[in-house]
Sequence to fold (50 residues):
Amino acid sequence: MPREIVTLACTECKRRNYTATRNKRTQTERLELRKFCPAERRHTLHRETK
Fold:
């Protein structure tokens, strides 16, 4: 099963706000998305965590 569920954490407040899926075979690096952070109340960079 190549697709896995990953957790996205805000780079500024370090809270884990979102989950996303990624294909392990095609995307080997960590996922980075700009998402809305409810704690910061603005869009920030969210990175994949373990």
The mean pLDDT is 95. The longest strand covers residues 3-10. The beta strands are 3-10, 16-23, 32-37, 42-49.
